[in-house]
Structure to design on (115 residues):
C-alpha cells in the first residue's frame, strides 16, 4: 500500500489550496477514503471522508462549508479543495482509508496558513 500526498504549501489566511493523494496497492474504488490532519502538539484528526462512488461526503465541523473532498477512481486519487483557509488549518495533511485498514501512512503534505 502506498499513499502519496501533495499540494501543500504556505498560503495567507483566506487563501486556497488543493491537495492530492495518489493511492496504490489496494482496490481503491472499494474503500471509503479520508483526509486527516495533525497539527503540532495535537492528535491526528479526521477532516473529511468520501464514499466509494464519490456521491456522499462527510466533514468535520471545523471545515464544513470551506473544504470539499472528491475522488477520481480511474486515477486512484482523492483531492481536498480547501478554501477560506484559517491559521488553525495549519497542519500536516494525510490521506488514508476511512477504516485505516492497512496500518500505513504516507509522508503527508504540510499546509501552513500564515500572513
Amino acid at each position: 500500500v502506498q499513499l502519496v500526498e501533495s499540494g501543500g504549501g504556505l498560503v495567507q489566511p483566506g487563501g486556497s489550496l488543493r491537495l492530492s493523494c495518489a493511492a496504490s496497492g489496494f482496490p481503491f474504488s472499494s474503500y471509503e477514503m479520508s483526509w486527516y490532519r495533525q497539527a503540532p502538539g495535537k492528535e491526528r484528526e479526521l477532516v473529511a471522508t468520501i464514499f466509494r462512488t464519490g456521491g456522499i461526503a462527510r466533514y468535520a465541523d471545523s471545515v464544513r462549508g470551506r473544504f470539499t473532498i472528491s475522488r477520481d477512481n480511474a486515477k486512484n486519487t482523492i483531492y481536498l479543495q480547501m478554501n477560506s483557509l484559517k491559521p488553525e488549518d495549519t497542519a500536516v495533511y494525510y490521506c488514508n482509508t476511512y477504516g485505516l485498514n492497512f496500518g500505513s501512512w504516507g509522508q503527508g503534505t504540510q499546509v501552513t496558513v500564515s500572513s
